[in-house]
Amino acid sequence: MTDASQLLLWMVxxxxxxxxxxxxxxxxxxxxxxxxxxxxxxxxxxxxxxDAFAMVAGGASTGSLPLxxxxxxxxxxxxxxxxxxxIVVNVGAVGAALYGMGLDRKHEVSPRIEPxxxxxxxxxxxxxxxxxAYSFLFFWELMSVTSWLLVLARHEEGETRRAAHxxxxxxxxxxxxxxxxxxxxxxxxxxxxxxxxxxxxxxPAIASLVLFAAFVGTSSKAGIMPLHAWLPLAHPAAPSHVSxxxxxxxxxxxxxxxxRIVFDLLGAPSWWWSLPFIILGALTAVGALLYALMxxxxxxxxxxxxxxxIGIIYVGIGLSxxxxxxxxxxxxxxxxxxxxxxxxxxxxxxxxxxxGAGAVQHxxxxxxxxxxxxxxxxxxxxxxxxxxxxxxxxxxxxLNGFVSEWLLFQAVLAGPDLPEPVLRFLTPxxxxxxxxxxxxxxxxxVRVYGIVFLGRPRxxxxxxxxxxxxxxxxxxxxxxxxxVAGGLLGGVAVAAxxxxxxxxxxxxxxxxxxxxTPLSLVAFESARSIYDAVTIAGFVxxxxxxxxxxxxxxxxxxxxRGPAWDCGFPNPSPLTQYSASSFAQPLRRVxxxxxxxxxxxxxxxxxxxxxxxxxxxxxxDHLWNVFYAAPAGxxxxxxxxxxxxxxxxxxxxxxxxFAALIILLxxxxxxx
Amino acid sequence: MKAGFLIALMEQGLxxxxxLLIAPAAVGITRTVKARFMRRQGPSILQPYxxxxxxxxxxxxxxxxxxxxxxxxxxxxxxxxxxxxxxxxTYAAGLMFNWAADAIALVAIxxxxxxxLALAGMDVGTSFGGIGSSREMMIATLAEPAMLLxxxxxxxxxxxxxxxxxxxFFLDQPMVVRVSLALAFLAMVIVALAENARIxxxxxxxxxxxxxxxxxxxxxxxxxxLAMIEAAGQLRLVAYLSLIACLFIPFGMARAxxxxxxxxxxxxxxxxxxxxxxxxxxxxxxxxxxxRVFRVGEFLGVAFIFAFIAILLSFLTQELLG
Lengths: 672, 322
Hints:
The structure holds two protein chains of two kinds.
Chain A lengths: L6 H21 L8 H22 L3 E5 L8 E5 L1 H22 L12 H16 L3 H19 L6 H29 L7 H6 L4 H19 L8 H7 L2 H26 L8 H21 L3 H28 L3 H36 L10 H4 L1 H14 L6 H14 L7 H32 L7 H4 L6 H19 L1 H7 L1 H8 L15 E2 L7 E2 L1 H22 L4 E4 L17 H16 L3 E5 L10 E5 L3 H22 L6 H22 L1
Antiparallel strand pairs in A: 1-2, 3-4, 6-7
Helix pairs in contact in A: 1-2, 1-4, 2-3, 2-4, 3-4, 3-10, 3-13, 3-19, 4-5, 4-10, 5-6, 5-10, 6-8, 6-9, 8-10, 9-10, 9-12, 10-12, 10-13, 11-12, 11-17, 11-23, 12-13, 12-17, 13-15, 13-16, 13-19, 13-21, 15-17, 15-19, 16-17, 16-19, 19-20
Chain B lengths: L1 H36 L9 H11 L2 E4 L4 H20 L15 H21 L3 H32 L4 H10 L6 H17 L18 H4 L5 H26 L11 H27 L9 H21 L6
Helix pairs in contact in B: 1-3, 1-9, 1-10, 2-9, 3-4, 3-9, 4-5, 5-6, 5-7, 5-11, 7-9, 7-11, 9-10
């Protein structure tokens, strides 16, 4: 085989293949466009294997191209961290492309989607390889623009155009912030290659400013609150397999950018750098779920849940920073492992759920929760896959979501060893918020699954739904298998990403074979914490089978189908079921009155009146009002005030100019 | 080695068997205590066993539009709860498999059972199923964080999240009342009441539909499926009682690698603890009324605050805990 230094060269192959299929798709029309998907799968599989080699091999392979800025060129580098995130990107790409192969080639394939699909994946792959500020920003922007074009694929709808507009504004703000970050790191010498940046020692004040800029730049892409507003609008607007890529994968590329800057380029961290990560991450995790619970659009709920999971990843990163900066490498490794595992696991189940949402939308033409229901009978395979994703994202054992959650709690438990009182106070708060987020996530996905797949159909479209093509089910199945395997083989996954953790924080978790069974996951040492999903799953499977067999033996197996009991008063109307809003009502009562200033007004007709009773619920989105509506209002208010300047008399213009001259003279006089 | 392995396997098997065996009795004791306080004779303590047997033998009537999830859920819920109850150290600390799930995993296993139950409640698409599921998940969002904070508090004290090690740690400590542990204990008791659908959060004996949470969810079940759900509920009560006993009053528990006598003593003490817990639950339930559903938030909020203060104390002043 090849040695590590050659790996980058191999990467040329998949990237070329992706760019070639983009070019091909730009030339082709009609059904032939779907050719992009098999080509993408081949390219992504090749890239994923190269990335896996790079991750396991450790070390770095570098190269440069004589393009880009003069005197700098384009530099590329493939190390374990890039390799890890490359796997995230390419596995997600395989799932999305497999789903794409099952699209209806007459109606769902369009020159607005397929060419950009391959280019989007290529851009994400290359961002991970960038080794200088210019190429990083160039491919970062390419990633933003291609995904923006994909969001705009259904530009006929006004809501989509609004989403794309907000996305573009937020992406620009993010890039400007990143520009500042790289400018700060390059310093007056202007050394833009990452090697030169690594070698520079930054002044602490500059480093803090760079940290702030990098945080804003990458978090606006990842969706940390309050920089999240574009995400629940733009992710659902794109076609579902693109939503899967944007939510599952692109947010992780943003996390990669953050890790690359904070852990690799910026130099030795101070402990307080962890504060924004921990605080905003934990608040985002809880806040986003409350938004998700109040929403009734299936894909928007999933997008909010992405924001939540990014919050959890940020908490992991923050804890890792805090432990690392105070010299506790073992705990830093546990926190970083939790963050990275959560990143890759989330990319699997979130892609799976978005593909499932796409299948539901395809089958029923709706993504409004309140017009769905009973799909488990009409889309049995999709229902199974979606259930796996829903249970995984709710962090329930033995699926994969719980593995990273468990590791994160282990990291929180190391908190009392932190020397800084602020951090020692903060860690239990974060532990409480994470626990709340885990419970809210379970409530959120019981709601989604129960309303969409269980119960009775709430509309004719839901009643007449049909299963999606086999390739799309297989795409979901591929990701569902990964979710199950990732849950059972958590120990293997932790061992596999060991080199990445070593590279980032300089320590790693105990490997396989350190616990009671070969596959046990051990966080610090086996006397302290063990989680063994295989044993638990085995126990549950044996117990369930035994019980079922025993019960069928002692009971007579008579089973009769009858009408629902419903306490004796079954009502045939599906409207008597709980809806998405009524399911959320208890939670709205408990949390919504503070979080959203929720107000319920009940209009109850008096006895004898014929009109129906009404309940109206008003929720206020405080984050949007404070961070978006208010600044936008201020800007447009100022603009309209300044607008008056265009309609002055000549006399007033002369006065203004004269005043400006006087002021400038005064300033010069005072300064000299 | 071989003999030790067999004995360990038997000890683990014994625990799985015991929790299963005593679960209906625990509920029976609680009911009897409540009946006596109300100056009623009350059914025999063995009545829950008879009820289970009766349900098993009856035919199962399933709603016409129930899916496979509805039929599979009772077995999975039962198995998850059983495994959770079997992995908590009850009479001995050194059981063969109780390393497999630590305190955090245990909370999550019980959470998985609850999520399945809530899903099953929504499967038929009746209004009662929905009301039960949505309220159950609301209660869970308050109870689960409190419970996680409690186990985290104790894990910090014991320096490990493994339950047998935590229990052994407290066995070795001199018995003193510590503020953080007392608060954690109160929080845990409130959580246990809520999670087991007991008064004042839910009324297990109610037949007034609008006040039900747990009963509303399982309204559509009958026959052997209902038997499984009922048995799972009884096991869950034993699991919580065992967890409280293991974390807060581990006294009498046999340590790892101890003699047969110690094991027997441990077994006896464990049974006494469960009986005491069941009696205490009965006394508590007759002395308080059920709350309105939306007051539950405040009640469980108290548990969360207690648990939070407990963990804060143990983070800030580790010396309080030794």
